[in-house]
Design goal:
Number of helices: 25
Strand content: 15-25%
Helix content: 25-40%
Distance between the termini: 21 Å
Structural class: alpha+beta
Strand order of the largest sheet: 14-15-24-21-16-18-19-20
Number of strands: 25
Largest sheet: 8 strands, mixed
Amino acid sequence: MFPKTWRFRLGVVCLLAVLAAIAFSYFAPAPDTSPIVKESDYAIAKKYPFNRRYFYPIDQNDLGLEYRRTEDWVGRLILPTEEELAARPQEEDWVWFEVYTTPRELRRLVGRKLRLSWLPRIQKQQWVDRVTTDIAFTPKALKAEESGVVVPHRLDGRSGVGPLMSLAGARPANDVIVGFSEVEASEWELGHPQLLELAEFPILVPERFYGLVKLEKALPDDSELPTNCPGGQPCGAEFFEVRHYNPKTQAFDGRLETIRIPQVPSSNSGRYFSTPRDLVKSPAGEAGWYIYGAIAQNGYFTVTALKPRALMQLKPDQIIRDRKAAEKYLTTGNWQDTPEQRGQISQILISSSSDAETTWKIGDRALLIHLFGGIGGENGDLVLAGTVTGHFAFGMAEVVKSEFTGEPEFKITYEQVYAQNGQGIISGKHSWSNYMGHLQRGWLGSRPVSDILVKFRPLDDYEFNEILFSPLKELDFELGVMTARYRTGNGTGISTVSPWASCVQDSSQGLYIAIQDLQAQIENTESARAWLDGHPRGPETERLAALRKLGHTLEAALTPQGVVRKDWQHNAAVEVLSATSASPAQNPFIEEENLSSAILSWRSMLPRNGHDNYAEIFLNSGAELWFLRTNQVGGNNPDMYPLAPTHLFGDVPILSKIPRRIVAGILFLPTWRELALTLALLLIYGGYALWLGTQTKFLQWRPVRWPGIRLLVAFFICFFSPALWEEFVFRLILLPHPGETVSVARWIGAVALSIVLFVIYHPLAAKTFYPRGNPVFFSKTFWVLAGLLGLVCSLAYLLTSSIWAAVIIHWLATATWLYGLGGYQRLEKGAQVEAD
């Protein structure tokens, strides 16, 4: 019987320890060290007048040429009472809309309260039904509310809650401000419409007006200074003298105005999301600031959100054209020295075009990949094992003409699949100014952010025989559905982060569904198929072919080994059915909360992984990538510093890559086709090994004469040691996973290194802890056979992406040698020599 050496025991113990560490890091919830609180950060903020709606008069006239409306229509959503809903039983998803701004010809509607609903053609689409749900709070939702999480408690117990109603009821108060442009007014009475009907999801905005200014100086006044702020006393001034941008001179020499940028209160954790301290000195404001807000009761324009103009200008700080340099920037350069970059912004463009600066023009649209990092400092984020998780999202970007300067600039919206939280950040479509720039709950001043704008021609719209197909709009729509589900927790009242459902998981699910849906739409549209058949070499056909290729690549990344999560598959089928069939799809969206679901979507589990993987895919597909980077931008907050988001166990090369390789290689079994390939490789190796071994008399037919049970047990042990643990070390850890983006040369180098170490390991073991291997492990024939075995196992791993293929080859080859071809007897001789 194969002896149970300490090498075997150590291998098993190490394997179990690594697997346990992975399981804990991925699936165990992070310990919550914060105290249980009764009051949310949102509730704390609402105590301050500048965070209350009454502080800003409703009926504000246009503020002159220095200000513009954030959207054509801006207003506050008001949740209807149950009595108001009962009075209109025939109407479905609707809310009240208190009008703040309108197109100029409808200014008389400012201050009115109108009903807001969907256009009939939108209402009839089945997606409204799928995200309309009855809400009954679970104990988990109630417990979350008690601990300071903002949940939609006004919706608890209601039935038929649709996407508009869930948006209006997302917070405890009616303070959700939205904007939109595509709307139709109807049900006119005495010259005033009573109903506004939407054609698309409204956008969350911080306030009604915005302007472009240069901060001239702070206006300190002891009676006006806030009493609490980061960095200690004295606090920074809240009032600033600003110069407006003058379109005629194209400079900041317009009207001089005094505005207020208030110091927001701290959160329960002691963090300040923003501060006006030293804001005038911020390098991010050298090109000016977009200020968002409204006139307060005291007559001053009070800022609720900031946006650095320089970040939105199409002026990259660096253009990377070399492919290797682009890969290096993505993997290491993007987040390099993040703490030292505090307060800085940057733009990096990756493009092979010689005139990359001019290829982005007004009207161009791009997919946005968003990732934020962590907060360092005394009240910073909890960091476990070097892992800073961060947050992931998709969004959309468009190159538009600035209303102030006339120059091209980026207009960015986020589709935030966001769990309930203490700040009252709502899952939904956000403008950049609301999600990033909001002083009270935006991330501009507190977290480092990487926004990648992906310009890829196959993502542009397609028109076949006057039928329009839009990949970006399809993704935007699917993410809108996903965000609506998150607002209600699918009826439970709470959405939380877990290994199987999170921002990156469900954003990826939206992407997967959009790919499936778009392909089905084209395949089921006869005129589109006819157009493509008639133009086999047309530019649109080639673009569509590239889109399909991209879809297959993205699908492969989202569905490892071709296995799709059952809930993703179900939800995609429901979406495709409703989009391509006239009959309604009655099946609701589902979500499986189990370990197998997490395993099947492991590649999209950590935000940094999702961000980098998607960027690599688009880079390899030939897309242009424009990176917009911010690092705790704005006023000076000395109490915190930015932390880069990381892979598991941080960004130490070995520690961060090994867990991903282990998960990638060990969690999926080879398919039947891959098992057949494994068998073929084993036969090739076995044929050569038998020829060489018999020629050198290293191999001889000498089967061990043991009882069947004993031989079976020994055969089984051989699977674990040496096969499993040696493949674990020499292939799984040392070799890049086939899913990693590495060059052929690097892969060959890694294989060569693993083979050399694999061969050297055996004589070293014979000289140290495994003397029974002497002199067998010093045989030149053994070295050749071991090296060839390492090569074959590496090929099996490369071709199947599963370490189990390599383990099977190693196991069967070693067991055959030990118990059939004289290996056991040779090792026994070594043991006897050692004993003598």
